[in-house]
Design brief:
By secondary structure, this protein is of the alpha/beta class. The protein folds into two domains: about 30-150 and about 310-325, 3-Layer(aba) Sandwich (Rossmann fold), CATH 3.40.50; about 155-305, Rossmann fold, CATH 3.40.50.1370. Helices cover about 40% and strands about 15% of the residues. Strands 7-6-5-8-9 form a five-stranded parallel beta sheet. The chain has a four-stranded parallel beta sheet with strand order 2-1-3-4. The protein starts with about 30 loop residues before the first helix and ends with a helix.
Length: about 325
């Protein structure tokens, strides 16, 4: 395990494993890099158990959050992570920034860089925005969710949470249920979980699955991923069940007949959860629409690790900030 001392706050890690200046998605992470993030998160988690939950790892560094979409969990998690590492933090709300006066995304980034930002954490409604940012400024860019495309820190905290309970994802069956098409969480988890050896089953209405899911899986080289539209089959003997948040506008867009029909066919209830293995883990990226994706009894039941996901998110995001900005480089 990486060792984080209170005096330095710097874990001893191999400089040959981590190759990233930015965190854009996990599709270009090696398995060793995912392992390293989880290893460093273990050390960060130990810090979070201390009475003083702070180390000087990023003292003198400035971390800026730029959120163009509403967020509670991710934004607060990144802010706490940066503060726990002693970084100076600046939080920008796009609705109250010069964007409302017509300033472009790139101009905003360049202004923030000129003010001394070392790391810029971006959530944006447009897929690819963090990639554009990484080519436009010298600061380290961390993707906190872009459109329907990716949410790398969520994938890393999901796999971390599973490993803490089961030790490994190797050959574990993971059923991901819900709106696969529009879920950046699902897209990043396809990469992260498959690289760790999981067998992933995607389940949801045909209108909420990519049109050519099997073709995408084949072209991308993802292994161990299948599609099963019947939820009872998808959940059968699963080790992990992940429900995805259903955006209510999907019904307004004509992709669902009614929310009631979705609940009848795809909600994770206690009865359906019993089709999975005994003590199967239940995950959800949040926020949960109770009574839609999950019945309240399973959302708060013994198999739910949803609150653990939130807690683990701080340690994972501390690890990512450390790896992109705080390590000693040889």
């Amino acid at each position: 395990m990486a060792d984080l001392s209170l005096s330095t706050g710097l874990p001893e890690t191999s400089p040959d494993v981590w190759k990233h200046e930015h965190v854009l998605d996990v599709d270009d992470f090696s398995r060793d890099e995912i392992d390293l993030v989880h290893e460093v998160a273990d050390a960060m988690g130990e810090i979070l158990t201390r009475e003083v939950k702070k180390v000087p790892t990023l003292r003198g560094k400035t971390v800026v959050t730029m959120f163009y979409e509403a967020s509670t969990r991710t934004r607060a998690s990144f802010e706490l992570a940066a503060k726990n590492l002693s970084a100076d933090t600046v939080n920008l709300d796009a609705s109250k920034s010069s964007v409302t006066k017509g300033e472009s995304f790139i101009d905003s980034l360049r202004t923030i860089q000129a003010l001394g930002a070392d790391v810029i954490i971006i959530r944006h409604s447009h897929s690819g925005a963090p990639y554009l940012a990484s080519r436009s400024v010298h600061a380290h860019i961390v993707n906190a969710g872009d459109g329907w495309h990716a949410h790398p820190s969520q994938s890393l905290l999901d796999t971390y949470t599973i490993r803490k309970h089961l030790g490994t994802l190797e050959d574990k069956k993971i059923a991901i249920v819900g709106d696969i098409l529009h879920s950046r969480v699902a897209h990043s988890n396809l990469w992260g979980m498959s690289k760790l050896g999981a067998q992933i089953v995607l389940c949801g209405p045909q209108t909420l699955l990519p049109l050519d899911t099997e073709g995408f899986i084949s072209r991308s080289g993802l292994s161990g991923v299948t599609v099963e539209p019947v939820i009872e089959k998808a959940l059968k003997d699963a080790d992990i069940v992940m429900a995805l948040r259903l955006q209510l506008e999907r019904q307004q867009a004509g992709l669902l007949p009614t929310i009631r029909e979705y609940v009848q066919r795809y909600a994770i209830t206690a009865e359906r959860l019993r089709l999975a293995k005994p003590n199967a883990l239940l995950l959800h990226p949040g926020p949960v629409n109770e009574g839609i994706e999950l019945s309240p009894e399973v959302a708060y039941g013994a198999q739910s690790v949803i609150q653990e996901q939130v807690t683990n998110g701080v340690a994972i995001r501390m690890a990512l900030l450390y790896l992109v900005c705080g390590r000693k480089h040889n």
